[in-house]
Amino acid sequence: MTHTDSHSSTYPLNINGVQRHLPLFKVQSDLAIAVLNILGDTELTEAAAHALNGRMAGISYDVIVTAEAKSIPLAYALSVHSGRPYIVLRKNYKSYMGEALSTETLSITTGKPQTLYLDAKDRAAIGGRRVALVDDVVSTGSTLAAMRALMVQAEAEIAAVAAICTEGDMAQWSEVIALAHLPLFPLSA
Ligand SMILES: O=P(O)(O)OC[C@H]1O[C@H](OP(=O)(O)OP(=O)(O)O)[C@H](O)[C@@H]1O
Ligand SMILES: Nc1ncnc2[nH]cnc12
Question: Where is the Phosphoribosyltransferase domain (predicted)?
């Protein structure tokens, strides 16, 4: 059963003792999501990175990989906690990325295709290495699938997938190391 906060359009989330009330936003004509936006939220980002680092303690990995934009602070904080470097898959190509690899994604929040780019220098840094894919939320899995596809192209081995939250069909994400699960909110017409 889904519990929203009483008398408000928010959903309660507790990450490692840090409580937030996520606002519900309509992303499709018949669907709303509880939006997790860690940008600017140092306390929540730190709590999540600390907890995820603990959950990943037994996993052997060399590099953290995330996708622009909202999960960048999480990757940075996990890098500090774990002592591993992190790289960011970008959504816009810049000439300084050189011979970048690319693939398409369609996240639940965006509703139109986005391209993810792996910078040539990052490609060299992860080739043959064990990577942990990290995101703030795994929902439809489109972003995760694009990250996975880039790792295959770059010949990196995926050692773990971690997120603050999974969303939607929990059973689909049993292999994701996650701290909480978010429901989806169907809207009646
Ligand atoms: O499982 P999915 O349906 O792919 O959704 C998950 C992705 O959606 C969000 O990113 P978003 O596309 O909103 O981009 P942003 O972080 O740049 O805002 C989130 O940060 C994940 O990366
Ligand atoms: N609930 C959510 N909050 C923020 N970004 C998301 N991407 C997919 N689901 C999301």
Answer: 47-167
- Provide the ipTM: 0.99
What 3-state class would DSSP assign to 120?
helix
Q: What is the per-residue pLDDT across 156-175, written as a single tens digit (0 to 9) for each?
A: 999 999 999 999 999 999 99
> Structure tokens of 170?
């929990």
Strand partners, 90: 117
The boundaries of the domain holding residue 56 are 38-181
Number of separate domains in the chain: 1
H or E element that contains 101: strand 101-105
Residue 8 lies in a domain: no
**Hey, which bits of 16-56 come out as E strands?**
18-28, 31-34
Ligand 1 centroid–CA 90 distance in Å is 12
Q: Whose CA is nearest to atom 1 of ligand 2?
A: 35
* 42 backbone φψ class: left, alpha, beta (φ>0; ψ -120 to 50): alpha
- In this structure, is residue 68 part of a structural domain? yes
